[in-house]
Every structure is written in structure tokens, then in C-alpha cells.
Design brief:
This is MBL fold metallo-hydrolase. By secondary structure, the chain is an alpha/beta fold. The chain contains 14 helices and 22 strands. Helices cover 32% and strands 22% of the residues. It has a 7-stranded mixed sheet with strand order 6-5-4-3-2-1-22. A 7-stranded mixed sheet has the order 7-8-9-10-11-20-21, covered by helices on one side. Strands 14-13-15-12-16-19 form a 6-stranded parallel sheet, with helices on both faces. The chain is globular and about 70 Å long.
């Protein structure tokens, strides 16, 4: 068999890896959208590098857009196979993909207004909500720790990856020419001391491992606790400067962590008394999905739930629904906290909030997670003084802060712990994906040090024999 890496290859987005078995079966691991790749983004999302109509199965590790975001486009281009996921992943994918379709249509309309004034032809969104509806009909639920035969001689097993609700590491057992090959795809690996979720599970010995490497050279543990950092930044921005705090945050995972931390501050009597807005209809839906699956919470969260029936609700919090309400926040001069998607500030309502507040030094833009270097969030995190938003340039006068301890991705130690259940001498090859190349080279050295001698860093569209 072969595997070809069509995304998240030496970059942290667009997860997409295609297995071709000797009998002709094609299995795609994830179908993610590229995000924050600058001028390359549209081109990368417009061409898969393979024929979707020839893919037999799609296995989805979790519902983040950089892992599931191109599924509707793939279906529109001829994919008719089965999509395997956990139940929470299917629930989240439905709302995330519909939201993605809506954002694309809205942003395309906004951009086309500008293009029309410049005499340029209009653009089309990658897909629509109708395309999403067609894609959701193909989903098939597989529970954690269940051996599921997707076709004769090919067995799938999910284990909890601890990254977001429903996230799974993918394990395939494939019988070819009388010999079993066991392959593991990590998806995204969570943290072993996550604020909300259970730790990643161990798994059986594998021959080949495809593992993410986002923070393969970083260590989260020595960083300042989240609650204290949030309290200080809110006080500094809203109370002392009288400004607005804008927080780009992914609707799934990061937003719920922020709400949980703010709720914890209220329980301790330390929450600054200002309005808090979650400006993302998707975030409210995602939060509800998380509430419906309390089994995913870790022990600490369950102890808090014993005294607080709603761990994501606190005084002053309001979820914003309509676009009109969202726009009104920009007209309101009063200090407040606005949490809005997307996390890389590349799309969605937060991009409009940044555009309207970036020029005022009283305001703060707070980045709370990894951003692709060429994304708007990445440029702000690096301290760029002039940024382009919707084709126009803006001076960065607002203060930009970064909290690096907030990540749903495991650090180097977490990734090594995830692999600690394996005998390195029995692993034929480890493939590093979902990471920047310089980070991957450092993580490869760490893997070599603990006994994984055959480590590869595949490039875009590169094929490997297994």
C-alpha cells in the first residue's frame, strides 16, 4: 500500500492523507481546509491533488475545519463513499460546516463588493449549505474502542485523542497478502492536563504512525495559569484603559475553555465586572453539544459541576446571534470583552471586530492559540505594524497580547507521552504532519533520542510506500 500526504505537510492546516491499498481501495484520513496560507490558500483549497470520486472511505479524526472543512467540496466533486467518525464529531461537523458555508458566502459577497469597484470579476465560495447537507448523509458513527470492519480485511478503531469533544486517534488494521499492517493516525493530540477534557488514551502497537507535531518543540507547563492572565488583561484593557478586548477564538474547544476560565473567576469572586459577548452563533451551538456529552469532562471539571450546574455561564455573558447585533458592538463605545471566531482571525465576525478596533490604542487584541504565520492572527502575534484586512491596510495601534498556554494541542512532552505506549523498535516509520518544518526537525530529533529511528517529514503531495 501507499500513503500520500495532500495536506498538513510541513504546515499546520489542511489535514488530508490518502491511503491506497493493493486491491485498489482508497481511504482518506481527514479532509481539511487550508487556512491562513496567504495568497496560496484559495489555490490549495481548490485542488485536492487526487480524484475525490475514486475515494472509497473517509475517516474523520475530529471536527475542526482544518480537518473536515473540505468534505462538502469533495462530495460536490464526486465522492460517494462512507465518512466514519465518532458521534460528537458528526454533530460538531454538521454545525461547523454549515457555519463555514455561511461565512464563505458572506465573506465572498463582501469581497466581491470591493472587487466590483476595482473592475475585477466576482469570486465563488468553495461550497454552499446545500453541499453540506449532501455530505452529512454519508456519515457513519463508530464508537470509541470498537473494532469496526469497514470492508473485508480492513478494521477501524477509534481511541480518544483528548483534543476536542469527539476527537479520535485513528487505528487501521489492514490484511494484505496474508500479512497484517497496523497504522495509527493521531489526528490532533490533546493535553494530558487539559482544562476540560479527559487525557488521550493509549493504543495497541502500530507498524506505522502518522502524528501531528504542532508544538513538537514547545513546552506548555511552565506558563502562567490561564485565569490569572485573563483577569490581568481584562482589568488592564477594560478597567484602566476603558477599551475593548477582542479575542479571536475557535468556536469549538477554545471558546469553551475561555468561558470555563471566566466562570471559574466568577466562582472565586475575581471576574471583572464588564459585559462579555460571544459573537458567534456557532459557539453557542458547540457549547450546547459539549454540555450534552459530560462524559468527556475530566475529574476536576466534574468536581466543579457538583457546585455549579452550568460551567460555561456567568454574570454579564451574552451570546450574540444576528449580524445586526454583531455590528452594533462596533458602534458601542463602552468597554467590553468580545470572543469571536475564527481563531486565526482569517474569517468570520472577529475579522470585522479587529478591523473596527485595531486603530485605537485603548483596545487590546488577545491571541489565545496557534496561528498560521501568514494568517492575520499570525501577523498580529508577530508584532506586524500594518496588516491587510479585506484588501485594505490598517495601522496596528491597538495593543496585541498573546497567551501561549492556551492550546488544545499537546506539547512535546504530551506527544512523547502519547507515543510511550509503543515499542519504538517495532515501529517501522513515523511520519510527522501538522507542523511547521523547523518545529518538525526538532521533534524528529527528540523522537530519535527515545528510540524512534525511522522518522520522516513528508512534503505536500509526497507519496510513501508502506
Amino acid at each position: 500500500m501507499t500513503i500520500t500526504f495532500h495536506g498538513a505537510a510541513r504546515c499546520v492546516t489542511g489535514s488530508k492523507h490518502l491511503l491506497k491499498l493493493d486491491n485498489g481501495t482508497q481511504i482518506l484520513l481527514d479532509c481539511g481546509m487550508f487556512q491562513g496560507m496567504g495568497g496560496e490558500t484559495d489555490e490549495l483549497n481548490g485542488h485536492f491533488g487526487f480524484n475525490p470520486a475514486k475515494v472509497d472511505y473517509l475517516i474523520l479524526s475530529h471536527a475542526h475545519i482544518d480537518h473536515c472543512g473540505l468534505i462538502p467540496r469533495m462530495v460536490a466533486e464526486g465522492f460517494k463513499g462512507t465518512i466514519f467518525s465518532t458521534a460528537p464529531t458528526m454533530d460538531l461537523a454538521r454545525i461547523l460546516l454549515n457555519d463555514s458555508a455561511g461565512i464563505q458566502e458572506q465573506d465572498t459577497e463582501f469581497i466581491n463588493d470591493s472587487r466590483e469597484k476595482k473592475g475585477l470579476p466576482p469570486l465563488k465560495p468553495l461550497y454552499t449549505e446545500d453541499d453540506v447537507m449532501e455530505a452529512m448523509r454519508l456519515f457513519k458513527i463508530v464508537d470509541y474502542n470498537e473494532d469496526f470492519e469497514i470492508e473485508p480485511r480492513v478494521t477501524l478503531r477509534f481511541t480518544d485523542a483528548g483534543h476536542i469533544i469527539g476527537s479520535a486517534a485513528v487505528h487501521l488494521s489492514i490484511l494484505e497478502k496474508g500479512k497484517f499492517t497496523r497504522l495509527t493516525f493521531s489526528g490532533d493530540v490533546g493535553r494530558y492536563e487539559d482544562l476540560l477534557l479527559r487525557s488521550p488514551q493509549s493504543f495497541q502497537q502500530s507498524d506505522y504512525i502518522i502524528i501531528e507535531s504542532t508544538y513538537g518543540d514547545s513546552y506548555h507547563k511552565d506558563l502562567e495559569p490561564l485565569e490569572g492572565q485573563l483577569q490581568e488583561i481584562i482589568h488592564q484593557t477594560c478597567k484602566l484603559k476603558g477599551g475593548k478586548l477582542i479575542i479571536p477564538a475557535f468556536s469549538v474547544g477554545r471558546t469553551q475553555e475561555l468561558l470555563y476560565a471566566l466562570n471559574s473567576l466568577e466562582l472565586k469572586g475575581s471576574l471583572p465586572d464588564v459585559p462579555y459577548y460571544v459573537d458567534s452563533p456557532l459557539s453557542e451551538k458547540a457549547t450546547q453539544v459539549l454540555k450534552e456529552h459530560p462524559q468527556v469532562y475530566n475529574r476536576d471539571v466534574k468536581e466543579v459541576m457538583a457546585q455549579d450546574s452550568d460551567i460555561f455561564k456567568f454574570k454579564g455573558l451574552k451570546f450574540i446571534q444576528s449580524a445586526g447585533e454583531s455590528r452594533s458592538l462596533n458602534d458601542d463605545p463602552r468597554p467590553c470583552v468580545i470572543i469571536s471566531s475564527s481563531g486565526m482571525a482569517e474569517a468570520g465576525r472577529v475579522k470585522h471586530h479587529i478591523r473596527n478596533n485595531i486603530g485605537n490604542e485603548k483596545n487590546t487584541i488577545l491571541m489565545v492559540g496557534y496561528c498560521e504565520p501568514s494568517s492575520l492572527g499570525g501577523e498580529l502575534s508577530r508584532g506586524k505594524k500594518v496588516v491587510s484586512i479585506f484588501g485594505d491596510e490598517y495601522d496596528v495601534r491597538a495593543e496585541v497580547r498573546v497567551i501561549r498556554s492556551m492550546s488544545a494541542h499537546g506539547d512535546c512532552n504530551d506527544l512523547l507521552k502519547f507515543l510511550s505506549c509503543q515499542d519504538p523498535s517495532l515501529v517501522k516509520k513515523v511520519f510527522l504532519v501538522h507542523g511547521e518544518y523547523d518545529v518538525q526537525t526538532k521533534f524528529m530529533q527528540r523522537l530519535n533520542e527515545v528510540g524512534f529511528n525511522e522518522v520522516r517529514i513528508p512534503g505536500q503531495h509526497q507519496m510513501q510506500e508502506l
